[in-house]
Amino acid sequence: MEQLKELLSLYSKPTSYYTQFKKSSHHLLLKNRRFFKQFQYTVPSPTSYPYQWLWDSIFHALVLGHFSPKDAKKELLSLVSKQFPNGLIPHMIYWKKGKVINLDWGKNGTSSITQPPLLAYAVWKIYQKDRDQKFLEDIYPHLSAYYHYLLIDRDPRENHLIGIINPDESGEDDSPRFDIPLRLPPQHTQQENFKRRLNLIKQNFKTCHFDAPFCMKNFFWVKDVPFNAIIVESLGCLANIAAQVKHKEEARYFSKKALLIRDAMRKLMMEDGIFWSTYDQDYKKIKVLTWAIFAPLFAKIYTPEEARSAVKDHLLNPDEFYLKFLVPTVSRSEPSFNANGFWRGPVWMATNWFIYKGLVNYGFFNLAQELLESSIKLIKQSGFREQFNPLTGEGRGAKEFTWGTLIIDMIEDRLD
């Protein structure tokens, strides 16, 4: 730990690249800031993603917390303002409709699906900055309703794994983890993939009428590893928040649910020492090697011995994830691997952030530092891009994309 602190301290020197990187990151977040009436939010990319997204705004808030907790809280409060009556928080808000991704698929200017439930984690992290009790009290009803929705509607059989009804709810739209449930071969076009996902969206609001259990039973039911690992970590934070706002019974409830999901993941997802996403009612494992096998590190679900094996056998394996630039979202050994494919091989900064946090949790400080340096190198070489080729470092996809600013949280969280 001391070695990592010493290395990280280099970034605090006035002449360091990191000092300039902090300025450019904050500048990008300010440039991408938007307003609608009393609401303030940040778009991931002005040209490619000119709306508000759920987990993107959570990432923005985590980074903004290091610059201005006030702005971080505004980001999250705008996010929950469009919550559905059943508690769902939509993954998109079209504050001002435009020509990009303009699908009529939700309610009141939103989408009808959600994204990985990192919200309580972000709220608790931001609360640590200034101990704003009113902020917790204002946002807690939204958090409670959202997580109750996930725990009940997305686990109708009470087997303690949370389901998703569309690959987009994972945040990794085209990931090969979803090829089998979508009945697609490992290699197919992005258009074919989008067509299958779009059909699920239509079924959600035309056939299912937003009834998640019905959708999962009849069309698409995946229990995704990252989604469930994230909710385990977030429920621990939510229990802390509930206790802080004097909801002691709910605090106990959320703590218990976190343990039940953790146990269910070990029982129903684990095989060969790693966790696999599952699909359908009988929990068939989707044995496709993606970065998802490292997501349980984030929530400390692996035992120390299991974590060492996962890192040694997979993350440090040059035939799988240990490529020139870390960490590809799909193992090089997979038939679906495509260094330039959308979520099918490139490096994404959000997944690097989760893996970095997980490595630190288990004391892999040197490897965490290597991952951090690789992330910085990608931004140096290609700028704030949506994704990066893990073999060449070439930036791809959206420009002025905000996820690269998560490097700020990687470093600052360790310096605190």
TrEMBL record:
Domain Mannosylglycerate hydrolase MGH1-like glycoside hydrolase per the UniProt entry, residue ranges: 49-403
Domain of life: Bacteria
Keywords for the protein's UniProt record, in alphabetical order: Glycosidase, Hydrolase
Gene3D superfamilies: 1.50.10.10
Coiled coil: none
Key word Lyase present: no
Single GO term (MF): Glc3Man9GlcNAc2 oligosaccharide glucosidase activity
InterPro entries: 6-hairpin_glycosidase_sf (IPR008928), 6hp_glycosidase-like_sf (IPR012341), Glycoside_hydrolase_63 (IPR004888), MGH1-like_GH (IPR054491)
Biological process (GO), any one: oligosaccharide metabolic process
Recorded family membership: Belongs to the glycosyl hydrolase 63 family.
The protein's name: Trehalase-like protein
